Amino acid sequence: MSFFAYRNGEMHAEGVALASVAAQVGTPFYCYSAGALRAAWKEFADGIKGMNAPHKVGVCYAMKANSSLAVIRLFGELGAGADIVSVGEMRRALAAGIPAANIVYSGVGKKASELMEALQAGVGQINVESSAEIETLNAVAGQVGAKAVVTIRVNPDVDAGTHAKITTGRKENKFGIDIDLAREAFALAGRQPNLRVAGVAMHIGSQLTSLEPYRAAIVRVRELIGQLRTDGHHIDRFDLGGGLGIVYSDEKLPSIADFMAVVARETKGLGCELTFEPGRRLVGEAGVLVGEVILVKPGSAKTFIIVDAAMNDLIRPTLYEAWHDILPVHQPRPDAATIRCDIVGPICESGDFLAQNRDMAPLAAGDLVMIRSAGAYGAVMASSYNSRPLAPEVMVDGTRFAVTRPRPTVDEMLQAERFPPWMEPVKA
């Protein structure tokens, strides 16, 4: 089922016309479909049921993909925990109602103060990624009188076959402990009086479109778990991370059922609780970015469609050379001619584009466009570059919608700053 579709010639999010949202909220804005979010979660829930796993299997939503409080709350009500990579995300998870015990704290560089706050909050698991972090966490846990439950993230040196900037499981990546050095790290952690080493974690990258890299990584970690048990460690958790891809253009994706079948086969008899940390797969296709055409600028080399959504709103095309389908909100005629154009924003950068050399039905000033598959790594990576206010976020559920994060005014942006005391006040 498509939760974003044309009805009577107008693009709708579920039962709400995007043009009506634009009229009330202004553009650009992000729109999330609650129905799409629930459908993505159900696919995971059904896949887990199909595993018939003998041990606990949990899902911790990877908040870095989309940290909207409304999105986190929706998943929490469905049974998700949260995978966080900062104390700020921890506070968001708690504010959205996620119990601290259901939070996994990941990340390659956690400060002692951040680890202390996490322990004081009672997070359920900390994924450590270096020997230095093991020693720091032990010291902090001793200061607060806690026994920190940890898994150690290992780097299995498996190529995820994805974009270089979002692959995380090779030796040249900064994440995790080299799997060849993992036994030494576990030995170090095992000697720390304030740590309880519970398991192993991995994460090999994002936007995976093949299950083979995932399978190969599981096999490597499974072998490590056997070695660690021989060394005397009690390993009862396996955190498999996330990374499954979504459709941006014409990708052929494995189903969650097929993914779970691979996991079930490769972890059979391992005797570990399993944790999945999906992010993009849960939210990516459930969100869109809507913008308005400012003007059309024909040129001798190409035509530019200049819209009010820009790289500060959605940086993925510029940062990752990413493709996002872009559709007119008002449905063009089936026989409408197309023009080859670049769809760009008003930012003062040549890299400010949403699409290049794209065939589009003709657009005019005032027309609305919808950028698909923008629910992951869209709003969370946005900035106020060029002093542009952050785009608001809207959630649709059936025939109702609500603004979940309003657009700040420029006055509010200015009020967040201060002049140094030695400067003269600005005269009115």
Tell me about this structure.
- This protein is α/β, with parallel strands linked by helices.
- The chain has 2 domains: 4-32 and 284-415, Lyase, Ornithine Decarboxylase, Chain A, domain 1, CATH 2.40.37; 34-280, Alanine racemase (TIM Barrel), CATH 3.20.20.
- The chain is built from 12 helices and 21 strands.
- The strands form 3 sheets. Strands 4, 14, 15, 16, 17, 18, 19, 20 and 21 form a 9-stranded mixed sheet that branches. Strands 5-6-7-8-9-11-12-13 form an 8-stranded parallel β-barrel, surrounded by 5 helices.
- It is globular and about 70 Å long.
- The termini are far apart.
- The model has no long low-confidence stretch (mean pLDDT 93).
Give the gist of this structure:
The chain is α/β, with parallel strands linked by helices and 428 residues long.
Radius of gyration over all CA atoms, rounded: 23 Å
- Fourth CATH level, the homologous superfamily of the largest domain: Alanine racemase
Q: What low-confidence regions span 5 or more consecutive residues with pLDDT below 50?
A: none
Fraction of residues in helices?
25-40%
- Strand share of the residues? 15-25%
Structural class: alpha/beta
The CATH topology label of the largest domain is TIM Barrel
CATH architecture of the largest domain: Alpha-Beta Barrel
Mean pLDDT over the residues = 93
How far is the first residue's CA from the last residue's CA?
57 Å
CATH class of the largest domain equals Alpha Beta
